[in-house]
Sequence to fold (76 residues):
Amino acid sequence: MPAGQNHLRADARRMAIGRRPSRCIFLRTAFCHLAITWARSRTRRFLVSAAFLYLEEQAFALYIFFTARLACSTSL
Fold:
């Protein structure tokens, strides 16, 4: 059995008999919260940068298309 489950069971027993859980559970909860928040912000930053990259590529493709179209229309 992993060590983390032992701690969770001990904390559950403490709470069941009305005692405060160990300080460790609060630290683990805070660490998990920070890790999840960091992962979400990292994902959000990745998605935003991917969206801007996509828009930049589309804008560049439109620029090339209209430049080529303009070059073709003026050469006739």
Remarks:
- The chain has two helices and no strands.
